[in-house]
Write a structure and sequence with these properties.
Helices cover 38% and strands 19% of the residues. By secondary structure, the chain is of the alpha/beta class. Helix 2 packs across helix 3 and helix 5 packs antiparallel against helix 6. A hairpin with a 4-residue loop joins strand 1 and strand 2. It has an eight-stranded mixed β-sheet, sandwiched between helices. Strands 7-8 form a two-stranded antiparallel sheet. The protein has one domain: Rossmann fold, CATH 3.40.50.
């Protein structure tokens, strides 16, 4: 029997009542977890490419005394179903954002504190653009609002996934984690993701530009920057500059944290997020 690896935290998700549900959204089913339903304000946690709602298991026990905590698996991730025909157009960020809006309607939740990692942060920017009235605040980590990759690089990445598959690549992807827990968690999540889901999403992540959206917005926002997330930090400057010029914004850096900051250091991540939410 494999040994269970835990993160460096005193939190214990097994002592928290977390409900797991599958929402019928019509053409797809969406998996989500929820705790603290009695609380008035809601926090929605959204993962990135290849992950799922279980990325936020250590956020439930920390926040659910004060907030209604929701974590969702995006279409084609975790136990959320993909569309039957699996067309690339069905995986646009706008479409994934609409899934979340539909879920919130099903749960009768009007506004949320949105917290997104990587692609989940990009979906947060899409919500800031298309549904700003739904946001009490926006927090992103491991996310840039501006990214431009060449078609050749995107095609190469798709080819690698097609040939190798997510189960094999999961053994390499765990390098994105800093601690034994985060490495194992990343590996498990990516291995559980359908290869075709990843391949259909990659083209939509080649060219991203929400800088104008940021400039026009008024929603209170925070970026949590893991100091070891080199790939994103190298392309983050324009996003930070836009927010600083706009105002109503905080930039927080977590030391010894990478792309998956909430997995690398859940204690500091949770306290950083809570401090920010108290200012909203």
């Amino acid at each position: 029997m494999p040994h269970t690896i835990h993160p460096p935290t005193t939190l214990d998700p097994t002592t928290t009542v977390v409900e797991k549900h599958i929402a019928d959204l019509g053409k797809i089913y969406l998996e989500y977890t929820i705790s603290g339903k009695k609380n008035e304000q809601a926090i929605l946690f959204v993962h990135g490419l290849g992950a799922n709602q279980s990325q936020f298991e250590y956020q439930h026990p920390f926040f659910n005394e004060t907030y209604c905590v929701i974590a969702v698996s995006l279409r084609g991730h975790g136990n959320s179903s993909p569309p039957k025909k699996m067309r690339i157009s069905d995986f646009r960020l706008k479409r994934l954002c609409k899934d979340i809006i539909t879920l919130l309607q099903e749960l009768h939740i009007e506004k949320i504190h949105y917290v997104g990692n990587s692609m989940g942060g990009n979906i947060g920017y899409e919500m800031l653009k298309s549904y700003p009235e739904k946001l009490l605040s926006l927090t992103t980590f491991g996310t840039t609002a501006y990214l431009k990759k060449s078609p050749f690089v995107v095609g190469l990445i798709k080819l690698v996934y097609q040939v190798v598959g997510t189960k094999t690549l999961s053994h390499l992807s765990n390098a994105a984690g800093i601690t034994p827990y985060s490495k194992q968690k990343i590996k498990d999540m990516i291995a559980a993701t359908q290869t075709l889901t990843v391949m259909n999403l990659i083209p939509h992540l080649r060219k991203i530009n929400y800088l104008k959206t940021i400039k026009k917005s008024r929603t209170r926002a925070m970026i949590i920057r893991g100091n070891m997330d080199d790939e994103i930090n190298n392309v983050l400057e324009s996003t930070i500059t836009c927010f600083l010029l706009r105002g109503n914004f905080e930039l927080k850096e977590l030391k010894n944290a990478g792309h998956f900051a909430n997995l690398d250091d859940p204690e500091n991540f949770n306290h950083t997020l809570l401090s920010f939410l108290k200012t909203v």
